[in-house]
Amino acid sequence: MLHTAPLNVRREGNYVRLDDAEEVIGWCQAFGCTAAQLRQAVAAVGPAIADVYRYLRALT
Fold first, then answer.
1. Which residue among 15, 30, 31, 40 has the highest number of C-beta atoms inside a 10 angstrom radius?
2. Which residues have CB under 8 Å from 60's CB, separation 6+?
3. Segments in 1-60 forming alpha helices (H)
């Protein structure tokens, strides 16, 4: 289930960082997605949180 807003995620600016395993786990929990889906989203639209959120929301 995709949550409406990322919660409890340590942020580095307004971007999703894939180089930090803990942050990936946090984003996956916040977005309700798998790590593979998160990486696919970042590859498709870039690391901006809002863009990743919209991309993942469109998958559901």
1. 31
2. 1, 2
3. 21-31, 35-45, 49-59
Backbone CA torsion sign across 17, 25, 6, 46: positive
pLDDT in tens, 41-52: 999 999 999 999
Does pTM top 0.85 for this prediction? no
Which positions ≥6 away from 55 have C-beta within 8 Å?
A: 41, 44, 45
Query: Among 25, 60, 18, 54, which Cα is nearest to 39's?
Result: 18
